[in-house]
Amino acid sequence: YHIIVNDILTTKPLQNVKTTIYNYQQHEIASTKTDKDGFAVINQNKNAYFAIVTDDLSTTYVKLDEGKTLSLSKFNVSGKKIKKGLQGFIYGERGVWRPGDTLHLNFILNDKENRLPKNHPVKLEITDARQKLAYKKVQTNGLDGLYRFDVPTNTISPTGNWLATVSVGGAIFTKNLKIETIKPNRLKLKVLIKDKVLHANKPIEGKLIVKWLHGAPAKNLKADIKVKFKTDNTAFKGFEKYIFNDPIKSFDSEELTIFDEKLNEKGEADFSKKVHLKGKAPGMLKASFLARAFEKGGDFSMDVFSKNYAPYISFVGLKSPKEHAYGSFYTNEDVPFDVVTVDDQGNPIKRTNLEVKIYQIKWRWWWNSSYDDLASYVSNSYNSLYKSFKISTDNNGKATFKVRVDEHDDYYGGRYLIRVYDPKSGHATGRTAYFYRDWWKRKSNDDPEASKMLVFTSDKDKYQVGEMAKISFPSGTEGRALLSVENGSNVLLKKWVKTKKGQTTATFEITKEMAPNVFVNISLLQPHAQVENNLPLRLYGILPIAVEDKNTILEPEISMPKTLKPESDFTVQVSEKSGKKMTYTIAVVDEGLLDITRFKTPNPWNEFYKKQALGVKTWDIYDAVIGSYTGSIEQVYAIGGDADINAKKAKKANRFKPVVMVLGPFDLNKNQHKSHTIKMPNYIGSVRTMVVAQNRENAAYGAAEKATPVKKPLMVLASLPRKLSPGEKVTLPVTVFAMDNKVKNATISLQLSNGIKVIGETTKQLHFKQPDEKMVYFDLDVSEAKGIGKVKVLVKGNGEKASYEVEIDVVNPNPITSNAIDVVLEPRQNKNIDFSTFGIAGSNFATSEFSSLPPMNFTERLQYLIQYPHGCVEQTTSSVFPQLYMDK
């Protein structure tokens, strides 16, 4: 608890004032006295309910419950919340897993604010998509704050969003995990569109190029491209300070198909499609493309990318002059605004009769961070239109107009919407702006929501450690300001600032403890006897500023071969660019698997140095002072920071075996490098090697990645459906790649598991004149197959060999059926029972059951118990107990 005491009459700090905090039961928790600056600190983790501040002349009571904190709802204090002085980062090796995969999860602990003892337990719990606990483990042996968990799943695990929860030191960290039945990309798609900016009056033209991940062209494959349009911030080179978006328009996303045909022999296709959108956009749109290519075996790969799309033939931009220190323009003064008109490529053009309209609107702090329904001010019939006139731009596409807001009587300014419309293109731009001459003369009761708000600015948005921050705020002729620098968990700095007439500037040094951001909290105090304005005794405001510490950035480096070979060893060498010490993990993952979710290599720095939410609460008594205006606001809310068995198991065919290899964690000392030898399994395509690093002592983090193709002179791929039924026949497409001139001939054969037979030729030949890809087909009969079968494709030629194995699940989709025949035997009687079999041969059976009681059909009932599909503890017990007592 930080206590600040000052004299209400003069604002001067009071020394040697006793402050005591009490709990809800009115028991004293702790007591202290203020220093010469009126400051005191009580180091207590217990929650206080109220405080009593007393000196020789007076006593003040401060209630410290949640509802009495100063309201932060008007200030941008959002961000990530610090939990008990701890931060954590959970990451995996990919963005999506299949049922049956192992989830390789890592947890990095940042406890620089609250050091935990060595071997402190870290608990991981995994709940599945049905909210059931699927895995639980406690670790105490992390390597320098880095903990690895390998979480197994079952092939029958439910798909959907799972949740990983890490508990440590009373703090909880979570991460959503996607479990889906997916297959990785085996094709690399590239879409070439020559236009940097797409135009509404021109068709979207381009070329689609598809190759296998190892580099061979994907000839004659079917492909399609879909595009989704959504709003985006409009910007043009050279006009970065101009606003090009219309604040009164919104656009709902729209999706269209622009290509759906086959590729040519080179794996390429040209496309051209003109699009027509229904909605009206506020400015430039973002066109997000989804391209897919389908293998002849039925599998498909996909890729996404985006382009800017211009729905207007030209755009109008608005540039504002520099605002005054507290974010507004002066009244009784001509304020110049610049206008520019450009075409869709950003080239200046001349425009005439641009319409400028200015509307007076109500004050809101959050106008710049949420939709403000500004359209209602344009369409409404009441007198919100302040001014209207026309302007024209010159040959350079530029023009200037002036806005003047005059003070009169008791009107001292306010908030306005400025909008510029081009009737020729239909595009418009605009912004909201404040007009005040003297912040201190504005009416205190014309807007109770803003009556206690203090607006101030910093000289920079982002600071480096060691720089001086300069804070400017409007002030009266006399008074005092309390400046406090706070973060997600602590008060880092507090000091008094003597205010000057008009504007006051305060400075403080940026330290490493202030990274990644701090909040500057200023309480501007006026003497109780002042009569120059009718503003509250205390105005307060909060400003976030970003802080970057270069010592917290690690730059891992990866050295490895440019090309890898299947079933061969390769070496990965890891180092740090500046020779810093670090702990790291390595993951080598199939790029096709990563492309499914556009998975980015995890970088802990982005998480740990993400903007933090304000974690300091403030109470004072100024709203309760008699004889002064307070403009009391309901203390509503603050914008939050909560920004993201050994029984027989059912088996399911593994449709593909992507490369997923995870190593570590490892230690790397200063100026050291480490080498790791890894064996590549039987795989062709491309892999990404990812290194994620951290240094617990310095709270430094970083990541690196490297993509590498995996190929050899002779390669093979094959595809089969996910499931087949007994008695079905299927065609197995096999693609053979000759990647070297020496490979002229290839022999393809199959190794089949029991029950799968080849119809026709069991061996086939291919001939290559040059490096190419060719296909052969085998017809398979699975009439006698049951359960999971395996098909292994073997290829050899000119001294090279390759193989590919695929699994197939043969499942009878029909339910088990039975037929019972009842026969009654009299004493010493014989009877013949005639019956015929039904169902698939090999799956049917018959049993005989004798009983002196009426027939109970025990066989069918026992089969039901044995195959009971539900598996919670109660249901499992219910099915087992009757079986245990059968012999009784």
Write the layout of secondary structure elements.
Layout: E1 2-4, E2 18-22, E3 28-33, E4 39-41, E5 50-54, E6 59-63, E7 87-92, E8 102-110, E9 122-127, E10 133-139, E11 146-152, E12 160-168, E13 171-179, E14 187-192, E15 197-199, E16 204-212, E17 222-231, E18 254-262, E19 268-273, E20 285-294, E21 300-310, E22 314-319, E23 335-343, E24 354-361, H1 375-379, E25 385-391, E26 398-403, E27 413-421, E28 428-436, E29 457-458, E30 462-464, E31 468-475, E32 480-486, E33 491-498, E34 502-509, E35 517-525, E36 538-548, E37 556-559, E38 569-576, E39 582-590, H2 591-595, H3 604-608, E40 660-668, E41 673-679, E42 685-695, E43 700-710, E44 714-718, E45 723-724, E46 729-738, E47 745-752, E48 757-759, E49 763-767, E50 772-781, E51 787-797, E52 800-810, H4 858-866, H5 873-884
Parallel strand pairs: 15-21, 30-36, 45-52
Antiparallel strand pairs: 1-4, 2-3, 2-5, 5-6, 7-8, 8-11, 9-10, 9-12, 12-13, 14-16, 16-19, 17-18, 17-20, 20-21, 22-23, 23-26, 24-25, 24-27, 27-28, 29-31, 31-34, 32-33, 32-35, 35-36, 37-38, 38-41, 39-40, 39-42, 42-43, 44-46, 46-50, 47-49, 47-51, 48-50, 51-52
Write structural notes for this entry.
- The structure is a single chain.
- With 888 residues, this protein is mainly β.
- It folds into seven domains: 2-64, no CATH class; 87-179, Sandwich (Immunoglobulin-like), CATH 2.60.40; 187-298, Immunoglobulin-like (Sandwich), CATH 2.60.40; 331-436, Immunoglobulin-like; 564-612 and 658-710, S-adenosyl-L-methionine-dependent methyltransferases; 714-810, Sandwich (Immunoglobulin-like), CATH 2.60.40; 822-888, no CATH class.
- 4% of the residues lie in helices and 43% in strands.
- The chain is built from five helices and 52 strands.
- The strands form 14 sheets. It has a five-stranded mixed β-sheet with strand order 15-21-20-17-18, with no helix packed on it.
- The two termini are 72 Å apart.
